[in-house]
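User: My instructor asked us to take a sequence, write out its structure as tokens, and then describe one feature of it. I'm not sure where to start. Here is the sequence I was given:
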Amino acid sequence: MLDQLRAQVCRLNCELPRLGLVTWTSGNVSGRDPQTGLVVIKPSGVAFSDLLPEHMVVLDLEGKQVAGELKPSVDTPSHLHIYRERPEIGGVVHTHSPYATAFAACGLAIPVCLSAQADEFGGPIPCSDYARIGEEEIGEQVLAHLGRAPAVLLRNHGVFTVGRDPQAALKAAVMCEDVAHVAWLARALGQPIEIPPAEVDRAYRRYQEKYGQR
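Assistant: Let's start with the prediction itself. The structure tokens for your sequence are:
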């Protein structure tokens, strides 16, 4: 069932530790199949080095497990909540990447001090309120704070990113950590200079409309 999506989700989960976004078995990638609406997610507590496509768990949007023998990630209720409420989202990524999570530990949004952040996120990367792990609270906080930027810092916890597919959500997670790293370094040097909102809007529109091959 959903062999291609399970292979993709497995591969992208294995990218998380390679990219320095997680440690040990923390974090997860999920993807939604646009035809069936079914969701594929990483199993709970399995080492990334041991993951195989057949280990990926397939669920419907209400959480019923329809394929896979392993227990799904403890973050599954939050992933499913996001998918139920935002049908245009096809991929969700959760990380504990260190620099972005440092901002989350302080309850701080990442201000727009870099043109790369203006291009990719179109504004600050917001920080949510505290939410407990294991139910839908994290998903509720993500949606409450999700704006134009496809990323939300979760206070005292980590990062959630979304995209039209799992690959786009992973890109957002990588870029979120990159801008958080630079913002942290800039704060060590002095007071970062924020880009004016009108220029952020211009840069975001240009990047979204003209960057890459169309």
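For the description part of your assignment, you could build on this observation: The first strand starts at residue 28 and ends at 32. Try explaining in your own words what that tells you about the chain.
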